Amino acid sequence: MLQTSNYSLVLSLQFLLLSYDLFVNSFSELLRMAPVIQLVLFIIQDIAILFNIIIIFLMFFNTFVFQAGLVNLLFHKFKGTIILTAVYFALSISLHVWVMNLRWKNSNRFVWTDGLQTLFVFQRLAAVLYCYFYKRTAVRLGDPRFYQDSLWLRKEFTQVQR
Amino acid sequence: MRADSGLRPEAHPRPPRALPPVPSANQDDIPLSRPKKKKPKTKTTLGSASLEGFVQASVHGPSEGSEPPSKESTEHPEEAPVQRRQKKTRLPLELETSLTQKKTSGSSLLRNENGIDVEPAEEAVIQKPRRKTKKTQPAELQYTNELGVEDEDIITDEQSGPEQQSIFTAPTGISQPVGKVFVEKTRRFQAADRSELIKTTENIEVSMDMKLSWTTRDVALSVNRAFRMIGLFSHGFLAGCAVWNIVFIYVLAGDQLSDFSNLLQQYKSLAYPFQSLLYLLLALSTISTFDRIDFAKTSVAIRNFLALDPTALASFLYFTALVLSLSQQMTSDRIHLYTPSSVNGSLWAAGVEEQILQPWIVVNLVVALLVGLSWLFLSYRPGMDLSEELMFCSDVEGYPDQAKGLKVSS
Prior knowledge:
Chain A: Keywords: Cell projection, Cilium, Cilium biogenesis/degradation, Glycoprotein, Membrane, Transmembrane, Transmembrane helix, Vacuole. Chain A: This is Transmembrane protein 138. Chain A: It is found in: Cell projection, Cilium; Vacuole membrane. Chain A: It is a multi-pass membrane protein. The structure holds two protein chains of two kinds. Chain A is mainly alpha-helical. Chain A contains six helices and no strands. Chain A is elongated. Chain A starts with a helix and ends with a helix. Chain B is mainly alpha-helical. Chain B is 71% helix and 3% strand. In chain B, strand 1 and strand 2 form a beta hairpin. Chains A and B meet through helix 1, helix 5 and helix 6 of A and helix 11, helix 12, helix 14, helix 15 and helix 17 of B.
């Protein structure tokens, strides 16, 4: 059974990482006095996303559903989050690499092209969706039904099997 | 001290006490043959037995005073089993507490209540003590209500040892007032105040209830509600910011949007910070409205949208505003890096300003309108939160099982 204190701790860590992500997405363009600042911000952001992925998977492993071997059920329930997080992680890394590549010599240079603009829009939109889905998943994993055998779980299992 | 010997026949009006059902002799003998047992229940019976023996001693001690105790000791072996059988039907504590009080009130009372040592000649005088017994009842009940079992165990424990001796010794100082309770802490019994112990146990129960009630579900629910509050703030703040921004732009652009260079010069330091702030607020607002319509459950979200639910519309408008706002990132950076066209390497060639700024202003206006409309839509039903209802309140039939499981695990 998931302890309330443990869950609160994990949830706050997740929210901390999410809010850092949102902060960097919002203000990284402002903080470009030196290219190194942006580089460090981007690296930490990507690590934060990676950490969040690890944490959510650890939370999955901790559920009764997973331990009972019903990985399919978990994947079925949270596939949106898993796929979106992976996509967002890829988009983030590619945008960061691209932007840093363009701005490394001169951080105040106008670097925008249509391609970069498109990638930027998609990355930022994915960030919002990722934030929403991730938050929702983290909050939903606090549901005690995931941590014990119940009628609900059996019903869900039969639904997935169909 | 045979003055009260006339009381004894009075016991006869209570036949059940005088003539109890006779159990097998073995039962009676067991407590006596094994003075110490580990189980508390057996201790109780043993204690009562030993106490009764003691009671007799206490009865006869004061009354017969200077008389040699040898007489008493010969009498009692026969009477003790009868006493024990009677006592088993009562609350054991009653005996102990009554014992303490009877010691003060007088010996004749005890004799009467126990129905022992009764002789026909003593009938007349017993009325008075009887009344006293009735008076003492409330106090006894009070004690039995509080932590009665533990208390009783302890006293019998202490007295079980010198059982045989107590028959011969004087009664004073053996039974203590029951204000103290002995609690086993780290393998040792320590005295604790009865009233304090009751308070602490109550406190523990209360805190246990609190802990039980605060589950991970409640944590998740409170986090969800907290985020909804942040969202509610960001909706209003965003609407205000967007309106202020568009008013600011139109004021700086002058009449008929003629003074673009003034707008660029004034606004260039503000463009990028505002763009960043707009993204932050739009992201928060979009996530918050997605939460409200439970966007992840696509069927519900689409149904709400088709039913023109204000919250669903608001989330759509926020998302559109977000896309529009993001699409202006390049222009915002261009404004941020504005230098007059006369300067070398300027991004702004002469005559390009209107071409770039016109759509930018229109997009900003649209964003402000969308955000303002969303805010209005949301304020129509500010309490709506489908994700809370669907996530935490669905599948209610699964919960009885879960509640049972919780109880078992705890």
